[in-house]
Write a structure and sequence with these properties.
Blueprint: H1 3-20, H2 49-52, H3 69-72, E1 76-77, E2 80-81, H4 86-98, E3 104-107, H5 110-114, H6 137-143, E4 154-157, H7 162-175, E5 185-187, H8 192-198, H9 205-222, E6 226-227, E7 229-232, H10 234-238, H11 243-263, H12 268-271, E8 275-281, H13 285-306, H14 312-315, E9 319-323, H15 335-349, E10 354-356, H16 369-385, H17 399-421, H18 425-430, H19 433-450, H20 478-493, H21 496-511, H22 517-525, H23 530-541
Length: 550
Amino acid sequence: MSISEKKQAWQATVEKSMAKAPERRNSFKTSSDNELERCYAPQFDYPGYEENLGFPGQFPFTRGVQPTMYRGRFWTMRQYAGFGNAAESNERYKYLLSAGQTGLSIAFDLPTQMGYDSDASMSRGEVGKVGVAIDSLADMEVLFDGIPLDKVSTSMTINSTASILLAMYIAVAEKQGVTPDKISGTIQNDILKEYMARGTYIYPPKESMRIITDIFAYCKDNVPKWNTISISGYHIREAGSSAVQEVAFTLADGIAYVEAAVKAGLDVDEFAPRLAFFFNAHNNLLEEVAKFRAARRMWSRIMRERFGAKDPRSQMLRFHTQTAGCTLTAQQPDNNIMRVTLQALAAVLGGTQSLHTNSRDEALALPTEESVRIALRTQQVIAYESGVADSIDPLAGSFLVESLTDQIEQQAMAYIEKIDTLGGAVEAISRGFQQKEIQDSAYAYQRSIEKDETIIVGVNKFTVEEGAPQGLLKVTDEVEVKQKQALAAMKGKRDAARVETTLKALEQAAKGSENLMPYILDAVKSYATLGEIANVMRGVFGVHRETVVL
């Protein structure tokens, strides 16, 4: 069958998709009134086309996971936000939704991420600083006040305490009258990258993997629209990895999660359709586009050939993208607007499902409302004005892009094979393999900047004299004082006996082999705090100690 005949066959799947969800317009044209095809394919013999590229919505998904992609609907514009207390963050979410954002993305402060309440000694000076402080269900109720959880998809960047925050979200939805099967969103829940790149872990790997597979199993039966993990390359790249390492280490982690779930007795096609990924978008536009395409192709083959996944949804790599925080500069911060634009364009050309664009002032402080609006408008200009979303995978067939896609796949697979020989991602992390590779890459990149081999505009070239930055958003220490007061007041009103009962039940479940999610949910509903729940599991599971790599 020729490529043109295969394209005609693909059109039949497009028609089925459009019967459920029509495209945004009846036709898509350039400013010169030239009609754009849905998807372009070569008009000549193209060796390897079917096995390496194919068509959107079909294996190996190199060209996208949906048959109509952005002609059907744009990616979700999901600005990452959260600071101070729940009431302040609630105001920011409502502002973003009113400005055209189409999904929520929650940033939590470090104590929340690490399983500490705001009144813990470890939390001092960090409450509400890099995200919103959440101590109990009471805070979560304020966070989503006036936001209907059956109408909004929510992503929560949370890992070691993901089970607790998901339980709180379910409980808030129920208080709104929304059943768990109606809510949709994502928890990051990716603990392996924490061990190698970020550090907000609590428990040892084995126990952390148990919690993750418990979430998989619970959501399969109770919260079917929820993405139970967002396997993250973002923080691996932020720690200094190359694009190839980002793909390799992320997919290796994905393999480890799938293996753990299968070992726990889950059928791969029961949970794999709810796996999601999270990637960085860096400055090298064409490499980034190729990276996204290569990752999709690799994951489809891994799932079909390594795990025997039969459901096409299990073979799809669906991903959220965030522009690269590590590329933002405190010098000449307005230059960050251009950097973010390039990075966002790469994500769209690469076929992302949702996107966060960083704000110009994030190298200096939490972003102001004006900066957040510019960041959101960047996505909207790309969507509505650039034309790049009017045809699917528009860079396909470029000699450069296809070559880079192949190279990234080959180099990333070589890393995965090396990790396999070390015993898999968990064992390789325990040996410090990924950590050392990332550290070496970060060091080489920094040295190239210091030698002026890599130019950062406004930093080591094209510099200007600058005054102190003005108008930055600052979270005051008063937030911590008020958060502690609210926590104390909540503890004074709750049913202490019920809290103790639910925490003891959780402890017994943790010592056994039952699924922990129902016990965590009961504790959350009793208004046990995040720190109290985490401490119960600390007592049973212990805490992880970092492997130091020199």
